[in-house]
Recover the amino acids of this structure.
């Protein structure tokens, strides 16, 4: 949503975009529908990597331009197709001259970006998994459809972006695979939910996930959802511990069947379709 | 009685306007800019582009007490604010994206006038639509616009005095940099290397806007230097940032950008002159006196467009006229600015593409550091160890202060070797950025004659803010997260910081009005000025 690249004239990266801005309508009104055959995805990938990735990152996580992970799931194929073909005036997002079918190939590929939704089919029972979710304390930290606690990531649409093997890894070894923030301007994407331990110069220890950091300060959110802010100059120790998490591992606490059911439930969370 | 009071009130209301009346800035005054530190008369403060102020009211002891004096917000900023102000006798001239010029009362930020060009269907390829500042000389304010015009405005009213087309914007020529005004002339270059334009440097008559000379920074086929391009048509090498000037030597020092196509150099074997080079130009006739190419046959987008800094300092016991240049390619260079001779150089960030520099300052390139179709991890990143922002030099500490960007990229080779002028290059290649956790920034103080680091202040992420050094013993800079801060110029110790809520994207500057020092910076789309209460 931010424009980008202040970089002058030279730049390599071409830039920006503002999805909130109005896409220009391409001349050809044929609606764009994601095309997902292996050939289509290969064509979409080819175009994306050669052209779009400069601004949006090879994995679609954003670079100079915003993250595109989940964008087709949120805006719909045709809306994204209009942006690809028409561009967004006043931003670095140029329109690309292509047919609706070609745009459909790109949108099809976009739908796979950032998604670890693999071909593995969740084998459990989503209804039973919902009960496991409720009885295992998950809702204390996660929000689904506006219900629950905001300590961890919201899960309303997580099934459209993540697949069973990702859920399994996260449930058994939380913190192993952490998402990256959406693309920021010229700054690289930082790991979200990074586990941090700090010790103040007067000997107090705190740990939790990083919610904000700059050159002078860091803020963390502990396992109870409480925020703690520190000036870095006041700290005796600041440790960043990838691989750790405030989320407990469910290894050994859930049976294999419960785990399968919970995974099936999470995989079923696709969110309400965008109106 | 009533009438008298009213007259007094009226007089009081008029007083600021009277006392802030614009005064002319003849060329001689700009040459001696250091003798009037209350003003900031050129892009870099003086012709040497040192961004060093002799004002010393702000000191390590009192800088912690800085408070907001005023803030200005443009009504409709269309893009990043990256302006560097000019301040003349209480009037501040700033630019707003994309190409608006605004005169502000430097006491309080009140707008005096504003001028915007009429822009239609602007072509901006490989650059962001912004503006980095104006030049001032005599009674004129000079600005270059995103659609590649050079315009002279009346400093008192903002009225257009002349408006000259520098180059055809439809071909991809676009301007974001501040012009340089010297002795009856205005110098300007353009951007557009990603649109495959042929780079140029122009000199114009300051009174009429008539072009006096033009330097093509890359040769036409058959011209001298064309043999450094194989069989390709030379393109790129744009001069898209501000030059420095030595009035005594009468030489302008101006950097050039990347060759086109960039991330694939297969069709342009050779050094590709004069891309990624520094040119020393005689502004009276536009002749190139010498050149120094930093990155021959460049394929990583490491333009040599950073503003150079001129300074005089002893090397091996002998006073030399020098030029310091922190290059986007990761090396700091010291050149003799009379001859272009290489004096010293070393990396000021992590770089993985060259073993070092040879005796002539040429890189000893490490094999297999070119972009590849899969992406080849090389440091520094595509945006470079520094980009468009300015460094500073303090003649008191003899240190060169740089906002270094510690970052790498997976460089992706493009398959398109035939970029068409004015067209967005498809399949051009570029970068895959590293994670933000694997990058950081730092304000570094380098020994100006060697590049050896004296101290650093680490930043959470690579920044886009230049540095400002002051005689009070301070270095000001900012962060991408939104901190504006002051460091001790001798030690790098942080002394003051304030969170401004949005990324800083401009070179800080300092000035004084009514005997009080202020410091200027922008964050997001707000222009901030701080002073002591």
């Amino acid at each position: 949503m931010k424009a980008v690249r202040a970089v002058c004239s030279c730049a390599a990266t071409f830039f920006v975009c503002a999805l909130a801005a109005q896409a220009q309508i391409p001349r050809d009104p044929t609606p764009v529908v994601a095309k997902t055959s292996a050939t289509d995805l290969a064509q979409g990938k080819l175009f994306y990597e050669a052209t779009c990735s400069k601004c949006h990152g090879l994995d679609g996580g954003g670079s100079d331009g915003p993250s595109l992970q989940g964008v087709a799931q949120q805006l719909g194929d045709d809306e994204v197709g209009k942006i690809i073909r028409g561009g967004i005036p006043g931003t670095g997002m140029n329109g690309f001259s292509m047919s609706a079918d070609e745009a459909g190939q790109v949108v099809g590929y976009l739908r796979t970006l950032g998604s670890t939704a693999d071909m593995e089919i969740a084998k459990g029972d989503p209804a039973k998994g919902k009960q496991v979710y409720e009885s295992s304390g998950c809702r204390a930290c996660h929000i689904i459809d506006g219900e629950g606690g905001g300590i961890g990531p919201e899960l309303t649409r997580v099934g459209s972006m993540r697949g069973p093997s990702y859920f399994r890894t996260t449930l058994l070894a939380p913190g192993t695979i952490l998402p990256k923030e959406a693309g920021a301007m010229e700054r690289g994407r930082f790991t979200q939910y990074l586990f941090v331990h700090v010790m103040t110069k007067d000997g107090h220890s705190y740990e939790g996930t990083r919610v904000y950091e700059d050159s002078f300060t860091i803020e963390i959110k502990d396992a109870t959802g409480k925020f703690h802010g520190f000036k870095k100059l006041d700290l005796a120790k600041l440790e960043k511990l990838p691989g750790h998490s405030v989320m407990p591992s469910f290894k050994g606490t859930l049976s294999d069947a419960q785990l399968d059911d919970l995974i099936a439930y999470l995989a079923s969370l696709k969110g309400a379709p965008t109106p | 009685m009533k009438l008298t009071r009213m007259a007094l009130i009226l007089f009081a209301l008029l007083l600021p306007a009277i006392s802030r009346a614009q005064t002319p800035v003849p060329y001689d005054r700009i040459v001696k800019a250091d003798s009037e530190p209350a003003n900031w008369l050129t892009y870099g403060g003086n012709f040497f582009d040192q961004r060093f102020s002799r004002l010393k009211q702000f000191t390590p002891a009192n800088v912690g007490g800085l408070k907001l004096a005023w803030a200005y917000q443009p009504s409709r900023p269309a893009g990043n604010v990256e302006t560097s102000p000019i301040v003349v006798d209480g009037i501040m001239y700033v630019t707003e994206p994309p190409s608006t010029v605004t005169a502000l009362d430097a006491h309080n930020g009140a707008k005096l006038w504003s001028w915007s060009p009429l822009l239609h269907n602007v072509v901006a390829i490989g650059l962001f639509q912004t503006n980095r500042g104006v030049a001032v000389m005599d009674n004129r304010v000079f600005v270059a616009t995103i659609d590649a015009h050079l315009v002279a405005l009346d400093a008192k009213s903002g009225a257009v005095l002349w408006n000259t087309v520098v180059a055809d914007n439809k071909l991809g020529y676009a301007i974001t940099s501040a012009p340089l005004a010297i002795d009856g002339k205005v110098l300007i270059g353009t951007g557009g290397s990603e649109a495959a334009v042929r780079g140029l440097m122009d000199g114009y008559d300051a009174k009429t806007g008539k072009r006096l000379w033009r330097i093509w920074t890359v040769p036409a086929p058959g011209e001298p230097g064309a043999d450094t391009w194989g069989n390709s048509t030379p393109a790129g090498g744009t001069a898209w940032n501000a030059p420095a000037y030595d009035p005594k030597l009468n030489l302008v020092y101006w950097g050039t950008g990347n060759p086109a196509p960039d991330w694939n150099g297969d069709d342009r074997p050779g050094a590709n002159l004069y891309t990624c080079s520094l040119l020393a130009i005689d502004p009276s006739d536009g002749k190139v006196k010498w050149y120094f190419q930093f990155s021959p046959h460049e394929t990583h987008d490491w333009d040599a467009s950073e503003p150079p800094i001129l300074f005089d300092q002893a090397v091996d016991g002998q006073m030399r006229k020098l030029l310091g240049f922190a290059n986007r390619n990761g090396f700091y260079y010291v050149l003799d600015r009379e001859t272009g001779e290489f004096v010293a150089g070393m990396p000021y960030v992590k770089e993985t593409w060259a073993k070092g520099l040879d005796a002539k300052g040429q890189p000893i390139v490490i094999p297999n550091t070119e972009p590849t179709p899969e992406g080849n991890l090389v440091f520094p990143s595509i945006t470079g160890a520094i980009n468009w922002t300015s460094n500073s030099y303090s003649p008191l500490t003899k240190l060169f202060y740089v906002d270094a960007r510690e970052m790498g990229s997976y460089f992706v080779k493009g398959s398109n070797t035939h970029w068409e002028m004015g067209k967005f290059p498809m399949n051009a290649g570029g970068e895959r950025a590293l994670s933000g956790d694997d990058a950081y920034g730092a304000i570094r103080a380098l020994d100006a004659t060697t590049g050896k680091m004296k101290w650093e202040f680490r930043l959470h992420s690579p920044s886009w803010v230049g540095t400002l050094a002051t005689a009070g013993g301070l270095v000001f800079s900012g962060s991408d997260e939104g901190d504006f801060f002051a460091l001790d110029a001798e030690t790098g110790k942080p002394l003051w910081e304030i969170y401004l809520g949005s990324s800083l994207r401009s070179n800080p500057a300092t000035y004084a009005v009514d005997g009080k020092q202020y410091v200027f910076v922008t964050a997001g789309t707000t222009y901030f000025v701080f002073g002591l209460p």
